[in-house]
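Handoff note, outgoing to incoming analyst
You'll be picking up this chain. Sequence as last confirmed:
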Amino acid sequence: MGSLPQLSILKGPTRPLVPNSISRIFEKVAATSATNNIALIFEENGRVSQLSYLQVDQITNRLARTIVETIKAKNLKPNSDGDYIVAVNMHPSDHLILVLLAIWKAGAAYLPLDHSFPASRIDHIIQESQPVIVIYDEGKSSNLAFRRKFLFLLTDTKDFLETPKLACEHLLSTSDNKSDKCLEEKERLHHLKDDLAIVLYTSGSTGIPKGVRIPHKIILNRLQWQFKTFPYSSSEKFCVFKTALTFVDSVSEIWGPLVNGLSVLVVPKNVTLDPEKLVENLDRHRVERLVLVPSLLRSLLMCLKLKKNTSLLKSLKLWVCSGETLTSSLAEEFFEYFPENEYKLCNFYGSTEIMGDVTFYTISRVEQLKNELTVPIGIPVDNTIIYLLDSELRPVKAGDIGELFVSGANLASGYVNGRDKDKFLNNQLAIDPVFSKLYRTGDFARLEKGCLLYEGRTDSQVKIRGHRVDLSEVEKAVSAVEGVEKAVVLCYQPGEMNQALLAFVKSGALMNENQIENILRNKLTSYMVPQVILVESIPLLVNGKIDRQALLKSYENTNNNDDSCYEIDIDYSGVKPSQMEAAKVLFDTVASVLNRSARSAISPEANFYEIGGNSLNSIYTITKLNDEGYHISISDFLSAIDLREVLERMTSSTKIQSAAPRFTAELLKNEHKAAVVDIITTSFYQKADLEQWLMPDILESDYDELIDALWEPLVEKGLSFVTKSDSGKIISVGLNFDARDEPDVQITSKLTVIFDFLESVEGPVRDERLPAGKGKILHSFMMGTHSTLSPKENVAVMQFMEDEVLRLATERHFEGIFTTNTSPLTQQLGTDVYHYQTLLDYQVNQYVASDKTKPFGLAPDSQRAIVQWKPISA
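Most recent structure output, in case you need it:
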């Protein structure tokens, strides 16, 4: 007898789930937490805000009272679904999370509105969801600016105009005198249907955004699965919230840590968009897990390779990819940097309607990826069943491709206004009421050896930077542009680095690609604006349908033409003669990277992002420049106004500086003393990385005393030097000692606090990890440059001094150079340019002096002391 074929049905573990709201769970955690346990940390523009669990609980109780009183005072009613929804238009901050938690405590649900949403999208969301109130950032944009942003553009938006608005700052100030006790159940708002927590709007299959209703119970199911499968470690203190609030992934980023007593680090948007800053932030806080889209993973890996620092992000053990297709090649690239079996790379699959994640696959070694172009999407989460069904909703056999349906405790409770009921079907295959509904994902998959493999979409939806984009919605917007006769919107190479959203347009109007794209920017969210390609005709198949493959092939052939970058208009007007060689490399590199996607001429005035660049290909551009010997930091490249500024910022060991004046070094002599005192004083007193926190107790005369005490041994040892310009002026000084033969000097000033601190961080590293004995370690003790140097000259002189220290150390047969950097510039140069090894990265505000005080306690968490070592090859 033959065996019965295995059907494509996968069931996740069954786990008990006790219904509860996330806000109530938070209150229990806050009640049992120590009063000083930090819940929220936010750093922006030098401001550091920390709120304890007790503070967050009390503040949100007061805010919740104000929200309820405002709604009841205005006699505001729930929407047509019976839901009390509060729309939130705020930038990432600690205040944002306070508002979200307060909305829940009030009994309402929150609905995020992104500042980048076009007016038409805001219009639709407000009209359909009917929020009782909108809370917004007054600090980021005043009430007038807020109204101009939305109201001026929404010329026919009666519903929005009539929706009450409340500035976050006003909400906070008017709540100060409220009771900080939690609201009783009778005081809270109550939805008509269920325990609605969040409404998230996604691109609809009809091209019209639709709101997904997410109750507390499905959030709880998703979080409880996470806590069991990927538990927080005993060393895990900080978690990051960096995902846009309109993404469902933000839910687990915020609320997972907060119902477990951990600290949430709120990452400002400018840091999230800068891979270099994001890496620094994650590394500094020893973050151990991260959720990100594959395109951001690719950016971070490129950033790590560019920095050539193998110690970065070594605490980050769990990497979770979702929102886009994760390719095997990218996963393999991950394990080129992170050791196998020590780090986990996970591929989560899902959508907003199913709480973001319903299946998962964990990779810990490369051999798991063999024979597959994309990483599997794995197995179901708790209390979830996955079905692969045919067109008649019957399970397909294992190995066959079927449409993916989801049932269980991760399903949303439908859409706002009951839209698209055909997406949530009655499950004829189950008896248990937990599995009574099926969600139709619109994805194809197959089951191989108990593991799900993704096989693409059944409709026109794709993922762009983690956002679900319906190509028909974009196509409709392009076709509506006056003068466009025909438009076809396609996605080229989804999930790959060169992924592109393309609009092939046949137009009878005298408009170019840029003009059409500018019109679309006022209609579509930024990530939905396609690259417009004008064509003379749209190719058809023999059956009369559009030949989409021919269009993609024409784009690919144009893009892969090796000579295509030379067809792009490159304009060198205004480039200085001394920079022409570098400009040719920069402009040709940009042309080769952007290629067919370049929107306009490449010139000194061109902005990289406005002419077709993005954060991913910007790092690729920097990498290629690095290969050509031209170095620029990622942050400098990202923040440059135009390519002229990029050219100016190409610093450190670049060929641009080859024409810089020559410097000479002289070993320290008595005649140099006055110049040395002047340079050391201005470098350390006026620039004051550590000294600033001891002011006014530090005096300029203290440096006279310091140099006096050190002068004789500095000259005697012959390891220190001054740098002279070609005119003979002393422009810098490098003071060095044998680390095992440093003089014991007495100083009476407050500078002792700084030297005690430096000894506390350097001593254990020096004594336990570096070679023993004299003549082994050259201690680069102090470096200073003349205050009249420009930033560019300053970097050039510092590089010369670094070379001179290396020459001295090599000549005197030292085994390596030891130093501690407290300046962000020297830290960056030491790591990225001079390739020192970081032995200790210390947060200076944590230092406790011998008198039990914290002399640098007011310093931000971002201020570090980095102890580094550079071994010298024999």
